[in-house]
């Protein structure tokens, strides 16, 4: 059943919310998920001393491991109360504020399941190699994502090479984990102070703590603390602290229990609940994918991977960056927010093309938007109005970690900076 044929339901916003929200709100959501997973910590651990460089090297060299556990995610972003009718439900919107519980399973490879648990509902994402499923018990809907024929052929070929132990030719030129750690540390220390805090215990496991502290006072981020498992070197916790509140992290996600053992195979197999409606989405392969991959391989062969390129050289047209490091502000010009809120597919495609650069990929965005070229639910406009406030310069979203300004002339300014910084640049 295509989205254009689907009946409009008030609950449909819940399953589409991460994709349908306005660009400013979407950036805020993306920023919230930009940090590595956080784990709830308790107690101290007695571990051998390590330097920040040694700790980064261990993380870089670590092999993926299977994992089963319960994660508690807490956001204290200072956003207004969201217009979610079922505040205790398994709705991705709840990740913007308060605490949520998730169950995670992974085989350490290409099979995983994540379930967002509500009081009496569930939102799950299951990934199995070239396929993925989402299920919302609130909507009782399954969405099945598959690759198109070309994408599946490319995936199968790469998987076969991996099983045979065939590595890309450029693999021999890759730097060692120690070299990567030195590069990462050097880059981070351009704008931050990187140190190792006292060991701790996370979900019953001894862990090291890496602390990244911005060197500037112009950012909302006070520090980022990452807990790393002593045995597996897997990140166990990231706490993002805001300058607005020194007492508790603004963003925290963490295991309350964790086991690095393979989950039962049945847990990673998706079975649609009886009676659930299932919608099929085919993920298109960009027409120029083969050329892009060949060009990437050629560039990678000549690339000095110990040097980090200037990211501003990779920016698409219409995107500029003011400042650098933690207090950098990204500006996107030519965004018709009013048209996006009204469900203008052409405006959404224009914005997407600047980021994705593929006409066929826009079809996938249309599936995620769920609008079928028609109008978006009114709830999207309500969400935009709820999360932003009117200022002389436009509409402003302020949180403890991120500020977003949408101007009347079609510019969107985003940064981990105080709102006054964006207003000054507008």
From TrEMBL:
Gene3D superfamilies named among the record's database cross-references: Lipoprotein localisation LolA/LolB/LppX
SUPFAM superfamilies: Prokaryotic lipoproteins and lipoprotein localization factors
Protein name, as recorded: MucB/RseB N-terminal domain-containing protein
Organism from which the protein derives: Cellulomonas carbonis T26
Organism lineage string: Bacteria, Bacillati, Actinomycetota, Actinomycetes, Micrococcales
């Amino acid at each position: 059943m295509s989205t254009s044929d689907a009946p409009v339901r008030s609950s449909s916003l819940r399953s589409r919310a991460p994709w349908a929200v306005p660009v400013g709100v979407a950036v805020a959501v993306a920023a919230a998920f930009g940090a590595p997973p956080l784990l709830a910590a308790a107690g101290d651990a007695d571990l051998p001393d390590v330097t920040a460089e040694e700790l980064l090297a261990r993380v870089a060299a670590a092999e993926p491991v299977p994992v089963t556990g319960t994660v508690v995610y807490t956001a204290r972003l200072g956003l207004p109360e969201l217009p979610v009718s079922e505040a205790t439900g398994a709705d991705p919107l709840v990740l913007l504020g308060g605490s949520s519980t998730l169950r995670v399973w992974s085989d350490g490879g290409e099979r995983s399941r994540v379930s967002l648990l509500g009081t009496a509902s569930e939102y799950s994402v299951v990934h199995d190699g070239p396929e993925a499923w989402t299920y919302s018990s609130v909507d009782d809907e399954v969405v099945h994502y598959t690759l198109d024929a070309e994408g599946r052929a490319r995936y199968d070929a790469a998987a076969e090479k991996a099983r045979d132990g065939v590595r890309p030719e450029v693999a021999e030129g890759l730097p060692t984990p120690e070299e990567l750690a030195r590069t990462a540390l050097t880059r981070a220390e351009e704008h931050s102070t990187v140190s190792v805090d006292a060991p701790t215990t996370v979900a019953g496991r001894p862990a090291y703590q890496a602390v990244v502290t911005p060197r500037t006072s112009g950012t909302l981020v006070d520090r980022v603390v990452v807990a790393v498992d002593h045995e597996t070197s897997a990140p166990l916790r990231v706490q993002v602290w805001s300058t607005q509140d020194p007492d508790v992290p603004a963003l925290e996600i963490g295991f309350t229990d964790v086991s690095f053992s393979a989950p039962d195979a049945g847990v990673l197999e998706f079975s649609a609940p009886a009676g659930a409606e299932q919608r099929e989405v085919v993920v298109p392969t960009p027409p120029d994918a083969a050329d892009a991959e060949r060009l990437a391989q050629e560039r990678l062969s000549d690339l000095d991977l110990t040097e980090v390129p200037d990211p501003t050289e990779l920016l698409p047209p219409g995107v500029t960056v003011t400042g650098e490091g933690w207090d950098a502000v990204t500006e996107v010009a030519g965004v018709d927010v009013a048209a996006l809120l009204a469900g203008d597919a052409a405006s959404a495609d224009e914005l997407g093309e600047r980021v994705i650069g593929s006409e066929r990929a826009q079809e996938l965005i249309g599936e995620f938007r769920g609008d079928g070229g028609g109008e978006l639910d009114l709830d999207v406009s309500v969400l935009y109005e709820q999360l932003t406030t009117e200022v002389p310069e436009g509409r402003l979203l302020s949180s403890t970690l991120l500020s977003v300004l949408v101007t009347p002339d079609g510019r969107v300014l985003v940064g981990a900076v105080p709102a006054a910084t964006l207003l000054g640049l507008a």
